[in-house]
Amino acid sequence: MSGAPHRNGQLNASAEAATRALAWRVGWLALIAVFGLALALTPPGVSRFVVVGLVLAAMPAVLDLQFAPSATWRSISVVAWAVGGALAANFNGGVSGPLAAWCLAPVVAAAMGEGAPQDMPRRLAEGATLALMGAAVVALAQLAGLNGPSPPAELALWLGLLALGSTALGVGAGLIVSGRGAATREGELNREARSLQNTLEAQPFMLLSMTREGRVRQIWGAPIEGAPNAALMRGGLPAVGRPEDDLTLRLALEAAIADGQAEVAFTPRTAQDRSLVASLRRLGDGQILAAVRDVTAEQAREASLEQQKAEAESRAAGRSRFLANMSHELRTPLNAIMGFSDIMRARMFGPLEGRYGEYVELIHESGRHLLDLISDLLDMSKIDAERYELDREIMDVREPITAALRLMRLQADAAGVALRGLLPPTSLEIDGDPRAIKQMVLNLVSNALKFTPKGGAVTVTAQAYRGQFELIVADTGVGISPEDLARLGRPFEQAGDSEQRAQGSGLGLSLVRAFAELHGGEMQLESRLGAGTTITVRLPVGIAGQEAEPEAPAEEEAAGPPTIDNVVPFSPTR
Q: Which CATH number fits domain 393-570: 1.20.1730.10, 3.40.1190.20, 3.40.190.170, 3.30.565.10?
């Protein structure tokens, strides 16, 4: 967390150093230029040696301004200042001349140059070394008589003041800046240390810094019941554990030293209803960092969650058993109602007068609807309770599909919807449950008829493809919105308006999906509002060699399924 402010501080310090270095170079040049102009305007003028000395002293600043962005130049800039200052002094009397102070120019350049504040001591040492070397070279040149003449006394006084003043100002300013940089770095380090201390203290567990011998040096984090700080500081982890845990704790410490890490569970002697776990890590300097946490609450929470899970599973199993038992009990009287209403509809004991015949039809229709609902509930409860077993056999899948289409033909005719079946012309054998296949077709066609307006079409296609059996039911109905698509396939979830929802229980698609999953397959639903719906059931139950292409019956016109955009796959959940 403190890394970003630290980097920002470094960037700010570098920007301040660049600004400071630029100001100093411009000031150095301005000072030399003003002084040179003043000498030129004062009779009788200045000698060429003085002019050369001033130019040589100004040249490193000019080069810095020109090449300062270059990292290569920054590495040799101090050398240029050493050469310029030494030559300026040598042309004007050598080490005894008025410009001898400019031999210290590399020290000034090091103090006022760019770079990180922490590099200041190294730069000053380099500048001082170059200054001594430059002064020694100037002294040797003077001994050899290679230096220029010293200016007149009055001029030498002003030149000396220039050299001494500029050098003293540069070195003084550099030392002040260096001190401020050191104070800034110290403040940043203190802030980082305080931030780290606050982070350690806010830990949800206790952190111990220990020696290799197990002696606790420092403690951070939340206190733990049964592990007081005083006891830990006095005798380490063995001092707070039970006597029988003493050997285990010492072995864990040895394992952490040898292997780099270890973990040990123990019980505090003063709070034996608690359970503590210490995770030990060996640090790079050989010290040990231990994280101690109280796992009593965690264990209680896990036990509570396990109990809640068991209770929820028990309630779910009880609900499934209740539905299965009630569905079975309700089927018996309903079968009697259906049987007696069939006798009355057939007028086996004479005609029914008035509106009794209409009422019998309504009784039979309502009983049929209720019986279908109870059958769906019974199947779903068995599936939820994992008690439903498929009665698989090798069969011609066209037979249960055709039987289902015959049952739905009257409903389709009453709704004014064309019901088409695209089945293979030859036998299509699969290894599956005929009743489940028939139920899937009935549920899918019933849903399609509910959402297809008069004049539309529902097409049922059966085919084999790459060892899988595909059952496709497509309609040209109103389609399903993306919001409803995300819900469909779960028990009791329905789409459409209130009138359409009243026509079913919301179990049809969930049963289709469940039957598909029991066969090891899946159901895929595709729809777009206004363009119809297509539901595809893929079952890995095909028999090798069954790849017959479906074709429409001769008396009916084959119609392709609608164009579909939205796809919502239902993958097996068990």
A: 3.30.565.10
